[in-house]
Amino acid sequence: LGGRNDITMNYILDFIQQGGVIAYVLVAMNFVGYSIIVWKIISLILFNSSIRKRLPAQILHRVVTHNTDHHIIIESIRTEIALAFSPLQKGMTTIENIASISPLLGLLGTVFGIFNAFSVIAVSGLSDAGAFATGIKLALITTVIGLVVAIPHVIAFNYLNASMESEQDNVENDVLLQLGRILKEKDHLRSQNEDA
Q1: How many CA atoms lie within 13 A of 13 on its CB side?
Q2: CB atoms near residue 15 (< 10 Å)
Q3: By Cβ atoms counted within 10 A, which residue in 77, 100, 101, 136 is the most buried?
Q4: What are the pLDDT digits (tens) for 68-120?
């Protein structure tokens, strides 16, 4: 089993090496992106397990104690929720950029590979098929690596973004429900005081 893993690893490293500088850039982007994805997943789990439960009450306390106008309260709630979720958003732009840039870098490698292939034809004609094939191979390798990097980053970005938006909506709903109860109690107390 160890020999099989060595062969696979050598094949992958050889594949990357054949892709040239662009392949190395894509692999580096992949490592950065996966690191951020793992960080975001851990951050989301920690947020849900510790901060999420306390957040609606904290937001209500900060907002309701300083405001009385309902419109100002609603806008303040939305602002407080956005501020609470802003640390979770850090790094998302990098994941999105890696997802969108890596296929373009793969395409750039494709252009270089095809350019090299036609340069060989210009110099030696079609007699050197091996050199021509090397250029085409470079073109295909960088395209493959670009897509291999992009696809998981697109999936991760969409998943993380949807999870964060869903949590943000849930917090807003919880806060508004609690606000409704508070306002109902205040109205009830006000009407009791007016009756007395």
Answers
A1: 6
A2: 14
A3: 77
A4: 677 777 888 888 889 888 999 999 999 999 999 999 999 999 898 888 888 87
d(CA 24, CA 103): 14
How far is the C-alpha of 141 from the C-alpha of 135, rounded, in Å? 10
Of the candidates 115, 102, 137, 120, which has an alpha carbon nearest to the alpha carbon of residue 20?
137
Sign of CA dihedral 94, 98, 104, 106: positive
Question: How is residue 45 written in tokens?
Answer: 């789990």
Task: Cite the DSSP H helix spans in 2-128.
Answer: 2-18, 20-46, 55-64, 70-89, 92-124
Tokens representing 39 are 């960080």
Q: Is 90 left (phi over 0), alpha (psi -120 to 50) or beta?
A: beta
State the number of CA atoms in the 13 A half-sphere of 147 facing the CB: 7
Structure token pair of residue 114: 């095809």
